[in-house]
């Protein structure tokens, strides 16, 4: 059991950084050695719901071929059992309330006539960072085989991956200009440029390229209005390229058409440095990628299991955040930067969203409980008993 558990965005940033250097990340290497997709959309097989981008990436980095994930409690409730010694994988979700035991003044729990603990639902003033540990189907006994589950979830008359991609492109309303040798998005003209479909190795490659450029297309000021500074291939453009690559991976998994990294391997070095210097950028990139995927897939941002609200990833004037034995007060916000004061020393300083302290304060504010633990299957089963 390890305490002081690293925040999820730090874990994902570190794993991806290591894989970027090795060239083995699911973004760079869409197909595994066994021929299966490197990234599949993780899903709870009981509810049929998926997981938001940061959680989905963390689950996928475990390398399982089976996309089914659930908590130990969910497994137990459905007469499955987590295999002994299995370790859970962390996910985060926004939490507005919590069920707590009703206690007496001395701290003991109040029981009802049947001996069950009396509970109450406590609403939080601010959305907090909920945590859960999930287990893959390969870690669970008695769960139906994947092939059997996939057959049961197939719907008659469902569109093929290519047909789904065609519909997504058509529904977007984007202007697509065919011709030339390169695939790119012209943010000035608000046009996507693609080579003719015959110039690609196959139809799938064409639609993968189109989806990637559609991800960039969503950044226009009339749509999601992202910062898209710099020219294609530049260091300034690298954050946008990371968002589009993650979004294309999410959408490709959803449509079952996969994704292609394209001709941008030079970005991985910049991404590695960016995530090493500022791990919280992983959280921002994943959140933006989720917005891109939601927009292009035509759905509201309600995909996350148990999700009721979006976590606040910025600071507000007047806010005080306890962190690392002291407290930090937000005195003012000027542009994208913040004027801060450290309570114990009265020191005033400026804080940028790219500073490491910014991410630490956001995490401390959203997740007041700083002591976390890694749960094994046995420990998870004990929760709630």
From TrEMBL:
InterPro entries documented for this protein: ArdC_N, MPTase-PolyVal
Domain Polyvalent protein metallopeptidase: 163-287
Domain of life: Bacteria
Residues annotated as domain N-terminal: 7-124
GO molecular function list: single-stranded DNA binding
Name by which UniProt lists this protein: DUF1738 domain-containing protein
Organism: Mucilaginibacter agri
Lineage: Bacteria, Pseudomonadati, Bacteroidota, Sphingobacteriia, Sphingobacteriales
């Amino acid at each position: 059991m390890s305490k002081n558990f690293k925040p999820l965005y730090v874990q994902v940033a570190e794993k991806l950084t290591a894989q970027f250097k090795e060239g083995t990340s699911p973004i760079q290497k869409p197909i595994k050695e066994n021929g299966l997709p490197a990234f599949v959309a993780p899903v709870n097989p009981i509810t049929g719901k998926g997981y938001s981008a940061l959680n989905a990436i963390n689950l996928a980095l475990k390398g399982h071929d089976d996309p089914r994930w659930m908590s130990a409690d969910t497994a137990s409730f459905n007469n499955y059992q987590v295999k002994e010694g299995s370790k859970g994988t962390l996910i985060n979700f926004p939490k507005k309330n919590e069920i707590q035991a009703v206690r007496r003044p001395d701290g003991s729990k109040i029981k009802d006539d049947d001996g069950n603990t009396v509970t109450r639902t406590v609403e939080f003033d601010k959305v907090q960072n909920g945590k859960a540990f999930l287990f893959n189907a390969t870690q669970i006994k008695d769960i139906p085989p994947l092939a059997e589950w996939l057959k049961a979830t197939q719907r008659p008359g469902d569109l093929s991956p290519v047909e789904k991609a065609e519909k997504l492109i058509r529904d977007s309303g984007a202007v697509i200009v065919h011709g030339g040798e390169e695939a790119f998005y012209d943010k000035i003209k608000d046009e996507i440029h693609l080579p003719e479909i015959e110039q690609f190795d196959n139809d799938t490659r064409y639609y993968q390229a189109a989806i990637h450029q559609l991800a960039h297309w969503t950044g226009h000021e009339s749509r999601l209005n992202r910062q898209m500074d710099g020219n294609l291939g530049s260091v300034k453009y690298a954050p946008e390229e990371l968002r589009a690559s993650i979004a294309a991976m999410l959408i490709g998994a959803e449509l079952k058409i996969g994704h292609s990294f394209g001709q941008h391997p030079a970005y991985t070095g910049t991404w590695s440095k960016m995530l090493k210097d500022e791990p919280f950028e992983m959280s921002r990139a994943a959140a933006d990628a989720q917005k891109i995927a939601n927009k292009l897939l035509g759905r509201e941002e309600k995909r996350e299991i148990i999700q009721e609200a979006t976590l606040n990833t910025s600071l507000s004037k007047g806010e005080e955040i306890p962190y690392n034995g002291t407290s930090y007060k937000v005195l003012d916000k000027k542009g994208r930067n913040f004027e801060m004061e450290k309570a114990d020393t009265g020191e005033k300083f400026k804080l940028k969203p790219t500073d490491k302290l910014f991410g630490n304060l956001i995490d401390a504010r959203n997740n007041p409980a700083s002591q976390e633990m890694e749960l094994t299957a046995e420990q998870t089963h004990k929760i709630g008993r």
